Model the fold of this input.
Amino acid sequence: MSGKSKINVFNKMTKTALDEEISAYVAYHRYYQRLIAVKIVSEGNTIADAANILGKSYQTVHRWIKTCESEGLEGLKPSFGGGRPSKLTYDQLIELDKIIEETPNMSMKDVHLLVN
Done:
């Protein structure tokens, strides 16, 4: 299945919103992968190209793109399905990541103290 995609991912968002979300987002790897997939397809590449670049199946990337088309960037955020709920909100995780990146030699104990 090759050729240009007929899916319009910019129904519910702009290219600028996508670019800003990619540059600002640092917390969840799965969400970041989905943003990159949308970016690759939005630049004229095929879903198959994006799947190959990211090492994902065509069906997975196609599902992400269709979800983005119908729900925008919110639809790309993983819905956590189990396990212990996070103590931190999405925004708190981003802030924690910034603190860790800006603080040299921060230990896991230091991070634990920040979170609790």
Notes: The chain has a mean pLDDT of 86.
